[in-house]
Amino acid sequence: MGSRLFYRKSGEYHFIQTDRASTSYSTFTPNPLSEKLEVEVDAELANLMSNANRLLGQLEGMSAFLPNVEAIESVFMHKEALLSCQIDGRTALPYSVFDASKKDKIETRFIRDYVSVMNYGLNKMNTSQYISKLLCEMHKRLIHQNTDKYSGHFRKEQVFLGKALTNMEQYLPTAPIHIHAAMRDLENFIQSKDNFDAVIKMALAHYQFETIHPFMTGNGRIGRILSYLILSNMKIITRPILCLSQYLQLSKLEYIDRMERLRQICEYEQWVKFFIKSITYAAADSLERIKKWLAVRELNLKKIKDCGKTVKAIEKTFDILELYPIIDVNTLAEKTTISYNTAAATLKLFSEMGIVHQSNSLERNRDYANSDFIQCFLSDIYQYQYE
Known about the structure:
Oligomer: single chain
Distance between the termini: 61 Å
Number of strands: 7
Structural class: mainly alpha
Largest sheet: 3 strands, antiparallel
Shape: globular
CATH superfamily of the largest domain: Fido-like domain
CATH class of the largest domain: Mainly Alpha
Radius of gyration: 23 Å
CATH architecture of the largest domain: Orthogonal Bundle
Strand order of the largest sheet: 5-7-6
Order of helices and strands: EEEEHHHHHHHHHHHHEHHEEH
């Protein structure tokens, strides 16, 4: 007999009376998450959980032995930032995101902020007593006061989420007067030692946060970073070498629809299955891309070893070209602390070996791309074309 994940209802509607009757409305507060939420796993969900945990375990085990793992962390975090921001309607060209020589470009500042906030959260999660406080600190770093007067604080105004992306009815998330209590419940759920499997806990926590919608802006991005914090806190994935937003971006309308159906008709089961599919997709994709990169890396290192030329700091330069896959001579010299001439000579050598290619058509201020590295990790979002 099939089993289910359910409450009799998914939350409470609260009627908010304003000074003008014409502007009165009802808001939604989700039920607290606890072991009172019955989690009975059917065969399909059991299989999804097993696959997700197996792949996450493989990825965690692999991470301990990866060469230049900081570069892999960086590329996945920037990819996650790019796709998570796209879900929220903020876009940037992949080229500009990974171009180290254009680090001060205004149009990629929100990507850099996302990566910085994600690093901050991962560093603080295991020592932070209050998750709500940490999320507010992260929000302040992500959302600047000139765009949100409540930056770093839970909202004090009601928001009305419209129908711009779907045919859903307008959604009115948790009223400001109920946000603090709802977030305390979520905090207790995340930190509690219960019987929930980690991937189910991630799915429920993400839904709960997005449904409460505690901030005026940036809820989607903070909520997706929260998934990484839970993975890290539960020691499932200690390095963020996967892109959870990839499947969510590919299935954006279903992503929104599944959350809405949970609110309306208590489809916890279908939401959890959908979210675990996104975890499985991300972990499997990471494993495939990392294995491909390891093979390509070995071939390129052999090219360097067999070239018969000696250039100062050549191996250090190779690692930097993975950490910053699109770079110019000045930036390479700065990152490696070698001279401009040595950096230029190294890039020239790598270009002759086909490891890097000029990625613009300029005679001066040339950019060089580590095209093999880019192809391994970014082929799904960026079709690199070199000169």
